[in-house]
Amino acid sequence: MPPASPETATRHDQHGRYPRAETVEDFAHNLAVVRQRMAAACLRAGRDPAQVRLLPVSKTIDEAHIRLAYQAGCRLLGENKVQEAHHKWEAMQDLGDLHWSVIGHLQTNKAKLVARFASEFQALDSLRLAETLDRRLQHEGRSLDVFVQVNSSDEDSKFGLPPSEVAGFIQALPQFTALRVRGLMTLALFSAEAERVRACFVRMRELRDRLRQDAPASVALDELSMGMSGDFEIAIEEGATVVRVGQAIFGARAVPDSHYWPGLVSAG
Ligand SMILES: *Cc1c(COP(=O)(O)O)cnc(C)c1O
């Protein structure tokens, strides 16, 4: 697949400036705008929009606002921190069809929490964590969709496995029968230079395609979770099947991103 639209720019200049959504109508509007941008990116790349899932990311957002997003149609929400996600899950038990995806780095000692309530975990990056999650899930009688997080930008600060280690890692996953491996997840380089961002996404697609050739039968590598508010259109052009979008739906966050992505250098 040649780069569909090499001129597509990042939107990192908008970072921190999105207005806060305060009503159901605001959420409906923001979701429609994001979906329309997703559809346009699909069109440029000759892809079917039905193959790309929008995962709204609600980190730092309070319960009242999450309930508005729910009323606007959100049924699966991404959270970076497991404790925050667990609190929200507990607080919104009355919304029986609201599900949670944990998308941030997880310490092994918190695997127990994820096993209890999450529907999806996108930041699997060690065998020790896989083993602990699997054990806790067996205990709960649950299973979990997981994505292997890959460091596609070679930045020391990023979580995720180096691309060269993913093949070996994946070979070891079938023993953990409560984990349903769906694909790979990454955070691209946080840069205003679109071509450097695009290179991360291309690298992920090529890695996924290569890994597929000799992945164990029980390991599905169909999914590529990549792209956020500032770069999801480029990610879709390069094959993303899940985009994780926070600010463009909920509005700018008060908490600085360095809280979630240690060592983050701002886009210039
Ligand atoms: C916060 C977050 C996102 C969404 O970022 P936005 O800029 O708000 O769209 C995506 N992925 C991860 C892992 C995150 O922590």
From TrEMBL:
Q: Which Pfam families match?
A: Ala_racemase_N (PF01168)
Give cofactor(s), names only.
Answer: pyridoxal 5'-phosphate
Superkingdom of origin: Bacteria
Q: Give all N6-(pyridoxal phosphate)lysine modified positions.
A: 59
Keywords from UniProt, A to Z, are: Pyridoxal phosphate
Q: Does the keyword GTP-binding apply?
A: no
Family matches, as CDD domains: PLPDE_III_YBL036c_like
All copies of domain Alanine racemase N-terminal, residue ranges: 27-253
Q: Which GO terms describe its molecular function?
A: pyridoxal phosphate binding
**InterPro entries with a match to the protein in the record:** Ala_racemase_N, PLP-binding_barrel, PyrdxlP_homeostasis
The family assignment reads: Belongs to the pyridoxal phosphate-binding protein YggS/PROSC family.
PANTHER family documented for this protein: PROLINE SYNTHETASE CO-TRANSCRIBED BACTERIAL HOMOLOG PROTEIN, PYRIDOXAL PHOSPHATE HOMEOSTASIS PROTEIN
**Any idea what job this protein has?**
Pyridoxal 5'-phosphate (PLP)-binding protein, which is involved in PLP homeostasis.
Please name the NCBIfam families in this protein's record.
YggS family pyridoxal phosphate-dependent enzyme
Q: Return the protein name.
A: Pyridoxal phosphate homeostasis protein
